Amino acid sequence: MARVTCPVLGQRVTTAEEAAAHIRPGDSVGISGFTGAGFPKAVPRALARRIGEAHERGEDFRIGLWSGASTGPAVDGALAEVHGLAKRLPYSSDPALRRLVNSGEVDYVDAHLSHSGQQAWFGFYGPLDVAVVEVTAILPNGLLVPGTSVGNNKTWLDRADKVILEVNRWLPRDLEGFHDVYYGAAVPPHRIPIQLTHPLQRIGDPYLRVDPAKVVAVVETDEPDRNSPLDAPDDSSRAMAELLVDFLRHEVSAGRMPPGLLPLQSGVGSTPNAVMEGLQHAEFEGLTSFTEVIQDGLLDLLDAGKLASLSATSFGLSPAGQQRFLDNVGSYKGRILLRSQEISNHPELVRRLGVIAINGMIEADIYGNVNSSHVMGSAIMNGIGGSGDFARNAYLNFFVSDSLAKGGLISSIVPMVSHVDHTEHDVHVLITEQGLADLRGLSPSDRADRVIAQCAHPDYRDRLRDYVARARAARPEARHTPHLLEEALGWHAAYLRDGRM
């Protein structure tokens, strides 16, 4: 069955090489893709080859790349390998690109995912020259059937001067109907409330729109998304899942949430995914989810009948999970809805729905500040992603991590985090395999005692208690959030110097 049935756009079908020729040195390029799903495959590779050839001739050829979130090796990896990127935003997880960002070669704008689309509309990033967007099909009337992610695609299609479409035959044609693209957004002072009160409520259109006059090329492909295997739940992640589930039971019994809980958000990664697995075996029924990414754990809850509805902006499945979805795509229609990330991550909606947010972290400090993006204060790992969108606005948020890293050489609970993504004011509950610290309603001094007692590994607990005691004694007039400034980051300095904290 033909995937390009629009007569006008059908005349623009061409090769990836010819399409990539529309991208010039210095262009800003908006690309589809979110957490390894829905990114274009052929045009970025053709562009990377073109950039590599230009560099061999001694020509400078680099672009700025904007996305929804992380893409795949055909985009970030290929362009990083030929040193073709000058700027990247708002999120990436590619190791080759990470090295270039941390070496200073590529400027990296690490933004909240709910901010990136609207800030492009505000003009904060400058003009968008080209959009390269993967879709499932182009209908006779020119409407676009989105693929396995929506991300910032609506914004890129609206804002770009030129548009290149990749139509991927690998995507199930049955994806039509899985999407809800909101076209009611506006810039201040013309904004109106977003009338969404349930995760599966439709407020938009099932299609993306594009001005046919802007489409300079259409490329047909047949390639799978990137799918990364998830680590199997281990004893540590199972322990954290049990702690979280028990805490939710307590909240229900205290009357602070209904028996079916509130809409769930789960961040990307093996530990949050393991928490979702833990909910399969709990008594909660009729669950809902308002999140960014659909990982295997959420698919498992759907298949088990525990989860009634699921709203996200993208898939992020393992190879096995991806195949399960493809084999049963029809059974998920009406239970899964993919939205633009400006809606999936919208603070107004997260707060209205009362989302329960579960995200990973790199480290937390004794007062509850969380670092989710930087290693040893200076080197970016991936970025803040959507964790801030959900954590600050959630009804209840959890940050989860093993208490140790690098085989025990690093403590995930430290006197002071080396980089702050989520301040103590926004963090409700910390969980490690050691225990759970509910920080709601506590003073900084009480938080420190609870975090150390409940979350720190025994190998580091006495040192943390000693730090707090000496900090309290050092300045009797400044005991609200006591620190020894000359030691606060000493654990990180010791690791950089000696290889252990």
Strand content: 15-25%
The spatial strand order of the largest sheet comes to 4-3-2-1-5-8-10
Give the strand tally: 27
Low-confidence stretches: none
Biggest sheet record: 7 strands, parallel
| Oligomeric description of these chains | single chain
Description:
This protein is an alpha/beta fold and 501 residues long. It has a seven-stranded parallel sheet.
Draw up the topology in text:
Blueprint: H1 7-10, H2 16-20, E1 28-31, H3 42-56, E2 63-66, H4 73-81, E3 85-89, H5 95-103, E4 107-108, H6 113-122, E5 130-135, E6 137-138, E7 144-145, H7 153-159, E8 162-168, E9 179-180, E10 215-221, H8 235-253, E11 264-266, H9 270-280, E12 287-290, E13 293-294, H10 296-303, E14 307-312, E15 314-315, H11 319-327, H12 329-332, E16 336-339, H13 341-344, H14 347-353, E17 356-360, E18 363-365, E19 370-371, E20 374-375, E21 379-380, H15 387-393, E22 396-400, E23 404-405, E24 410-411, E25 413-414, E26 429-432, E27 435-438, H16 444-455, H17 458-474, H18 490-498
Parallel strand pairs: 1-2, 1-5, 2-3, 3-4, 5-8, 8-10, 9-16, 11-17, 12-14, 13-15, 14-16, 17-22, 18-25, 22-26
Antiparallel strand pairs: 6-7, 18-19, 20-21, 23-24, 26-27
From the structure above, extract its key features.
single chain; 501 residues; alpha/beta; seven-stranded parallel beta sheet; five-stranded mixed beta sheet; 18 helices; 27 strands; 33% helix; 19% strand; globular
What's the gist of this structure?
With 501 residues, the chain is of the alpha/beta class. The protein contains 18 helices and 27 strands.
